[in-house]
Write a structure and sequence with these properties.
- The protein is α+β, with helices and mostly antiparallel strands.
- It is built from 21 helices and 26 strands.
- The strands form five sheets. Strands 13, 14, 15, 16, 17, 18, 19, 20 and 21 form a nine-stranded mixed beta sheet that branches.
- The longest helix is centred in the middle third of the chain and has 33 residues, at 339-371.
- The relative contact order is 0.09.
Length: 698
């Protein structure tokens, strides 16, 4: 009897502790099995079971909405089951991943490597002994090709006191944790224009260093299309590309996946009612980086784009005239055959650029600390600074023309002093290139600098020094790489002719600065600066007459020629430098937040041009695009309100808008489609096709 009792007890223990699964079934490219969170269950209770699939490398199966192609897995009930078919619940779908099939053309949604699809299973109230679930797992599995596969899988559970299956229960719990939660904020979709705008408000996970993607339950949107996201103080807005021409009926349903900076993903099930975009949920670019967007990889990325932007500055029209001076010095140094002298030119020029950009970064940090905001180009919003820069450009032009020579008096004192003069000249050229070039925000700089201006001072200095190094890099390489030095031409009479030719770009740069000065301080300041240029020319003429009295008088006239125009330029212009006058010049309307709100409330599309007289990129966009007949006609046909925000002079309202949109300065272009309350931020380099395309897509 004892032996029989022991045998019965052993059988019962083995049954209670046995795994609630059969062996995995190899369906071809996946190992498939049914698992459960219990090995022993109570009659009448509901537990979680799951379909577990371990996939071959590079193969995938599909989510509930497969995307452009595919079918989700399903369970086909078999009559051999002792669990009724109605006791099997639907899959609880974990958050999917993107599965690009053809980049930009076909996008699927699903899972790779392993997926566990939980589902509720109700145990019959009259169950006893064991219960068995027999199903056919029917699924489509794909790599480069798709293969339909099936697997006959079973799950057997002991009926008795509940006993957890620790290992399988933990796996199921981990995948249930990946199931989308309810969205705690507000969500709306504006499907009145193109693209659709999915506006999200209130969810604390909508930080700007998060990645956001919407996975629809149906096929209302284009699956492969990108979903650009912008942020505001209260949330975020995604741009969704409509699939086909069928208008959206009812709500837009799906799963919103938010990926944090550390790679953690959360899903939220949403049902977006139709309506306008929530206020303060758009306009700021995402920052995919470390905490705050300025640490680690994020800062390195910003510094890289700043370096590229600095290289681009070498091609800007406001910098080229200054670089011509440096080029002439490099040719002379290379011709001398002294490698040390050539390297000295490159080093001192780089030092001049870096010192200037460091000073600019320090000034921006200081201005930000004092006023709460700062923008690039602020130095050209100061009338005296612009007047002095115009006179310096004019003076350099006179030197290039040969009206006077720099350093001839000290060159006779020895080669040491001469070399010092050369280093000082290279350093000054670097300073001048930085001062004139910094406001010319190139196409790689706007977003990078805008993102860093609100960051700690160390990040500001790192990015600005990277931009300066990019500006200096071509000449630095030319100084240290012998192979490049051999590409420089031999000196000759052509150098004097070319030197004189370069005087004319300097005169044109001075003229451009005078136009900036006119917008800042009025026509009177321009007239006094021209008078100052005349005084400087007179001082040079006096100095060439010889004699101590003439030279003393020349020095006094020279100081007066710089000082008095700067004093006169300190007085701001009356009305001629205001943004409204600037807008009237182009037959547009002056920008203000209130005016934008009025026009968008009327349902009119609005284009806003944040510009300045001293911004070379702004003027290029005006000439090539915004003031072209094609764009103007398109604006008129679409009833577009064209607003101008002129930042030639300091304007705290414009500065605040630039800060809000995280832009370092102008140009900035905002496009409000008809009915939209939040804008799209356009690229800094415009084209006719881009602008007219905005109207067509609306």
């Amino acid at each position: 009897m004892i032996r029989i009792f022991a045998s019965i007890l052993a059988v019962l223990l083995i049954g209670a502790l046995a795994p609630a699964t059969a062996a995995p079934v190899d369906g071809g490219h996946a190992r498939v099995e049914l698992i459960a969170e219990r090995s022993s269950v109570l009659p009448g209770e509901t537990i979680y079971a799951a379909l577990k699939m371990d996939l071959d490398p590079n193969w995938h199966v599909y989510w509930r909405n497969a995307g452009d192609a595919g079918l989700p897995p399903e369970l086909i009930y078999r009559e051999t089951s002792t669990v009724p078919g109605g006791a099997i619940g639907d899959f609880v779908w974990p958050v999917p991943h993107l599965l690009p099939v053809v980049e930009g053309e076909i996008m699927d949604y699903g899972y790779s490597e392993q997926v566990i699809l939980p589902f509720p299973l109700m145990i019959p109230a009259n169950a006893s002994g064991t219960v068995q679930l027999d199903v056919v797992a029917d699924y489509l599995i794909c790599e480069d090709i798709c293969v339909p596969e099936t697997a006959d899988v079973s799950l057997t559970l002991t009926v008795g006191q509940p006993v957890p299956d620790t290992m399988n229960g933990e796996m199921i719990a981990q995948w249930i944790a990946k199931v989308p939660l309810a969205f705690v904020g507000d969500v709306r979709v504006d499907a009145s224009g193109t693209p659709w705008k999915l506006s999200l408000r209130g969810e604390p996970g909508l930080s700007r260093d998060s990645g956001i993607r919407f996975f629809p339950f149906a096929h209302e949107i284009s699956h492969p299309a990108p979903q650009p996201v912008t942020f505001g103080s209260d949330g975020a807005t995604l741009s969704l590309t409509q699939a086909g021409q069928t208008p959206l009926e009812g709500n837009l349903d799906g799963v919103l996946v938010i990926e944090q900076a550390d790679g953690t993903r959360f899903g939220y099930e949403i049902s977006a009612e139709q309506g306008p975009v929530f206020e303060n949920t758009a306009g700021l670019a995402a920052i995919r980086s470390g905490k705050g967007g300025a640490g680690g990889t994020g800062l390195l990325t910003l510094a890289f784009f700043a370096l590229i932007g600095g290289l681009v500055l070498n091609l800007m029209p406001c910098v080229l005239p200054v670089l011509s001076i440096k080029a002439m010095g490099m040719v002379s140094a290379a011709a001398s055959g002294h490698a040390n002298e050539l390297r000295s030119h490159g080093i001192w020029y780089t030092v001049g650029v870096l010192v200037s950009f460091a000073a600019l970064a320090g000034a921006i940090v200081g201005v930000r600390a004092a006023t709460g905001s700062a923008t690039l180009g602020f130095q050209l919003q100061n009338g005296p600074t612009v007047a002095i820069l115009a006179l310096i450009m004019f003076l350099i032009g006179l030197w290039l023309m040969g009206l006077f020579e720099l350093g001839t008096s000290i060159q006779n004192t020895g080669s040491t002093l001469a070399s010092r003069n050369g280093a000082a000249g290279a350093f000054f050229t670097g300073v001048l290139a930085a001062v004139v070039g910094a406001p010319c925000v190139g196409p790689f700089l706007g977003a990078a600098l805008g993102a860093v201006l609100s960051q700690p001072a160390a990040a500001v200095f790192i990015v600005f020094l990277a931009m300066g190094f990019g500006l200096a890099l071509p000449f630095l390489l030319l100084s240290f790489v012998p192979g490049l030095q051999r590409l420089l031409p031999k000196p000759g009479k052509w150098m004097e002719t070319l030197k004189q030719f370069f005087a004319f770009p300097m005169f044109l740069t001075a003229a451009w600065l005078l136009s900036v000065l006119g917008a800042l301080s009025g026509h009177s300041a321009v007239a006094w600066t021209v008078a100052g240029a005349t005084a400087i020319t007179f001082a040079i003429w006096l100095a060439r007459r010889g004699g101590i009295p003439a030279r003393a008088m020349a020095a006094a006239v020279l100081v007066l020629g710089f000082a008095y125009p700067a004093v006169r330029a300190s007085a701001p212009a009356a009305a001629e430098g205001t943004s409204s006058a600037y807008a009237a010049k182009y037959e547009t309307e002056a920008w203000s937040p209130e005016r934008v709100a009025e026009l968008t409330a009327q349902g009119r599309p609005v284009f806003v041009d944040f510009t300045a007289t001293w911004c070379a990129t702004c003027q290029l966009n005006k000439l090539s695009t915004l003031k072209s007949a094609a764009v103007q006609d398109a604006f008129a046909d679409a009833n577009v309100a064209f607003l101008v925000a002129d930042f030639t002079r300091k304007d705290p309202v414009i500065a605040e808008e630039l800060k809000r949109r995280e832009r370092a300065g102008v140009p900035m272009y905002l496009w409000y489609p008809a009915g939209a309350s939040e804008p799209e931020i356009l690229p800094e380099i415009l084209s006719k096709d881009l602008v007219i395309g905005l109207l067509r897509s609306s």
